[in-house]
Design goal:
Number of strands: 19
Low-confidence stretches: 99-110, 175-182, 364-371
CATH class of the largest domain: Alpha Beta
Bound molecules: zinc ion
Number of helices: 12
Largest sheet: 6 strands, mixed
Shape: flat
Mean pLDDT: 83
CATH superfamily of the largest domain: Zn-dependent exopeptidases
C-alpha cells in the first residue's frame, strides 16, 4: 500500500472569484486488480495497453486506487507533481523478489490483458479472491509461479499454455516498462541567454529576462498537468546553448523547447525548426496556433539549419520567438510580466496539445451552497440594519428595513448572526435572519 500526503493548498476559482482552500489530506492507495477493474468498467477499455492515458484518465485511476473512505473529490485537483511521481514509482515497483528468464514468445503475443482475463487466471489457478487487493505486480508474479509449479489442466493444449504464459509475460513487461500507459511526457525547457549574455536589448529591456518569465509560466502549467520538466535555468545565470544541448540530451526528454525573443524590427511570433518534417514541426505549428489564440500575429514556422539548439538536440526541438523586442508595437505586448506569462501559458497549451493532454485552467467546481428558491420574511423591528455583505464585519449601508415583508434571494453564513444573512431582492444589501420570520 502507498500512503501519500497531499499538502494544504489554495486555488483561485475564476468562476466564483473565491479562493478555495483544502486541508492537508493523507490518502492510502493500492494498485491492484480491484483498482484496475473499477477503472476498466468506467472507461470501457483495457488499462494495461501502450496507449497514453489522458490527464483525466490518470487522475481517475488514482481515484480508483484510493482505499481511504469518504475523500472529497476536489482533493485530487491538488495532487502535486511529486505526489504523481510517487504514485508512478509505486505502480512501476516490481513488488517481488521472484525473477523469470524472459520468454522469447512474449514479444509476439498480442493478447490484451484486461481485468477479466486476470480474474479468469485466478479462478483457473485456484488463487484466493483476497489476492485481488494485492499490488498487481505481486499478483501477476503469483499467477506466473502457479503456472510454472502447477500441473496444467489436461484440457489445455501446449499451445494454450504457451499463449497464456506469453500473455502473462507481456502484462508483466508492461507493468515494468511504463512507457506508454501512463502520462510519461517529459519536456526540456530552455530560457535563451542569461547572465553576461543579455540576448537582444531594446527599450531598456533585456531578452534574457523576458525568456525566463515565459519559461517559468510555461513550466507552472505543464507541472500542474503532470508533465515532467527539466529547466535550463530558473534564475539569471550564464547558460550558453552548448550547455543547454548537453542538458537536454542528458534529460532524455521527449521534446525540447527554447524560448527566445526576436530582434530585427519585425512584427509577430515565429517558431524555428530544423525541418518541415517530423514531430518538431508539429510542435512548432501548435506553438504558432496558440500565440495566435492570444492575439499575436504569426509569421509561421521557419526552417533554420544554423542553430545549435536545433542541430545538437537528439529529440525534436523548437525555438519559440514570441515577439520582436525592438519593434515598438510588438514590444508593447511583452513589456509586462503578465503579458509574458500569457505567452508562457500559450506555449504550455501547445505542448499539452502535442501530448494529447487536455488543458485544465486549474479551477475546481465547488458544490452549490446557494439556496435555490427565493422566500419571504417578515421583519417586525423598525431599525434592522442593512449591510453591504453577509456579516457584521461588512459595513452598514446606512439604510434600515423598517417593518414589513421582504424577499430574500440568497442566504449565507456570516459573522454576528445565528440563522445566517439574507440578501434582499431590492439589491439594497444583506440583513441578519435572526430578526426575520419566514412566511
Ligand atoms: Zn535569443
Amino acid at each position: 500500500m502507498l500512503i501519500i500526503t497531499i499538502p494544504a493548498a489554495e486555488l483561485f476559482n475564476e468562476k466564483t472569484n473565491e479562493f478555495i482552500t483544502t486541508k492537508e489530506q493523507t490518502l492510502q492507495l493500492e494498485h491492484s486488480l480491484v483498482s484496475l477493474s473499477k477503472w476498466e468498467s468506467k472507461w470501457c477499455k483495457p488499462f494495461l495497453t501502450k496507449e497514453t492515458k489522458t490527464f483525466e484518465e490518470t487522475i481517475d485511476y488514482i481515484k480508483c486506487m484510493t482505499i481511504t473512505q469518504n475523500v472529497n473529490p476536489n482533493v485530487y485537483n491538488f495532487l502535486t507533481a511529486s505526489n504523481i511521481e510517487d504514485i508512478k514509482n509505486y505502480i512501476e515497483a516490481p513488488m517481488t523478489a521472484t525473477t523469470f528468464s524472459e520468454d522469447k514468445q512474449a514479444g509476439r503475443n498480442r493478447e490484451i490483458t484486461t481485468s477479466e482475463v486476470i480474474y479468469q487466471w485466478m479462478i483457473s489457478l485456484n488463487i484466493p479472491m483476497e489476492c485481488q487487493k494485492w499490488h498487481l505486480n505481486r499478483l501477476l508474479t503469483l499467477i506466473r509461479v502457479c503456472n510454472v509449479k502447477n500441473t496444467p489442466p489436461k484440457k489445455m493444449s501446449k499451445r494454450d499454455i504457451m499463449n497464456r504464459n506469453a500473455a502473462l509475460n507481456a502484462a508483466r513487461k508492461k507493468q515494468l516498462n511504463t512507457k506508454g500507459w501512463w502520462i510519461m511526457a517529459k519536456v526540456y525547457l530552455s530560457a535563451g541567454h542569461g547572465g553576461s549574455d543579455p540576448g537582444a536589448v531594446a527599450y531598456g529591456m533585456k531578452e534574457k529576462d523576458l525568456n525566463l518569465d515565459i519559461l517559468l509560466a510555461c513550466n507552472e502549467v505543464l507541472v500542474r498537468h503532470g508533465v515532467t520538466t527539466v529547466l535550463s535555468r530558473t534564475k539569471d545565470e550564464y547558460d550558453p546553448s552548448t550547455q543547454e544541448v548537453k542538458e537536454a540530451n542528458a534529460s532524455k526528454a521527449d521534446i525540447a523547447v527554447s524560448f527566445h525573443t526576436n530582434a530585427g524590427r519585425g512584427d509577430g511570433s515565429e517558431s524555428l525548426v530544423l525541418s518541415t518534417r517530423g514531430k518538431a514541426y508539429k510542435v512548432a505549428q501548435l506553438c504558432e496556433k496558440h500565440t495566435q489564440a492570444i492575439g499575436q500575429n504569426s509569421r509561421g514556422v521557419k526552417v533554420r539549419n544554423n542553430l545549435w539548439f536545433l542541430k545538437g538536440t537528439k529529440m525534436p526541438a523548437v525555438i519559440c520567438e514570441c515577439a520582436f523586442i525592438d519593434h515598438d508595437k510588438d514590444n508593447d505586448i511583452i513589456d509586462t510580466v503578465e503579458e509574458r506569462r500569457k505567452f508562457g501559458v500559450a506555449y504550455a497549451k501547445a505542448i499539452l496539445e502535442y501530448f494529447g493532454i487536455p488543458y485544465n485552467d486549474g479551477t475546481v467546481t465547488t458544490p452549490e451552497t446557494k439556496t435555490s428558491e427565493n422566500f419571504l420574511v417578515k421583519i417586525s423591528i423598525l431599525t434592522l440594519n442593512i449591510r453591504k455583505g453577509p456579516g457584521t464585519n461588512y459595513a452598514k449601508t446606512g439604510k434600515k428595513t423598517g417593518r414589513g415583508t421582504f424577499t430574500i434571494v440568497d442566504v449565507k453564513e456570516g459573522k454576528g448572526s445565528k440563522k445566517g444573512w439574507g440578501k434582499l431582492k431590492s439589491g439594497d444589501g444583506w440583513i441578519s435572519l435572526d430578526y426575520a420570520k419566514r412566511v
